[in-house]
Amino acid sequence: MTKKNKILILSSYIGLVLIFLIFNKYHIPCLFKQLLNIPCPSCGMTRAFKAMISFNFKKALSYNILSIPLFIILIIIFITTLTDILFNKNNLKKLTTLIVKNYRIIIMLIIINWIINIYKDI
After folding, report:
1. Radius of gyration, CA atoms only, the chain
2. If pLDDT is split at 50, 70 and 90, which confidence band does 1 have?
C-alpha cells in the first residue's frame, strides 16, 4: 500500500466520522421510503448507530437488526486497515476476500432484514 493510499484511507475514515457527527443532530429522511412508500433494507441504521453510541444495544436492534453486526464489521475493518497501514501488512485484502466469498449469506441477511423492516414499517 502506497503512502498516498494510506493517507487517502485515513482521510476517508476521518471524513466519515465527521459526517456522522454533523448529521447526528439532523434527521435525514429515507429517499427510498419517500419514493416507494416502503422502507429500504438500511432504514433505521442511523438511529441504530446513534443508539449504539449511547450503549443502548436493545434499542439499536429495534431500529435495524443488522446494525450491531454491521457496526462490529466496520470496527474490524477500521482496526485491520490501521494495522495494515502501521505495520505494512495486507490483512484488509484477506478480510475483503472473506466477505466477497460469503456474498450469498450477506445478500440473504439483507433481504431478510428488508422483509422485517417492511413488516415493522420502520
Report:
1. 16
2. low
Rounded CA separation 9/5 (Å): 6
Q: Which three cell numbers stand for residue 9?
A: 484511507
Q: What is the pLDDT of residues 28-66, one digit of tens each?
A: 778 888 899 999 988 888 889 888 888 999 999 999 999
In the three-class reduction of DSSP (H, G, I as helix; E, B as strand; rest coil), residue 37 is classed as coil
Angstrom distance (rounded) from CA 44 to CA 117: 9
CA distance 17 to 12: 9
Q: Which grid cell is 102? A: 460469503
Burial class (CB in 10 A: 0-12, 13-18, 19+), 14: exposed
Query: CA-based diameter of the chain, in Å?
Result: 48
Cβ atoms within 10 Å of 84's Cβ, excluding its own: 19
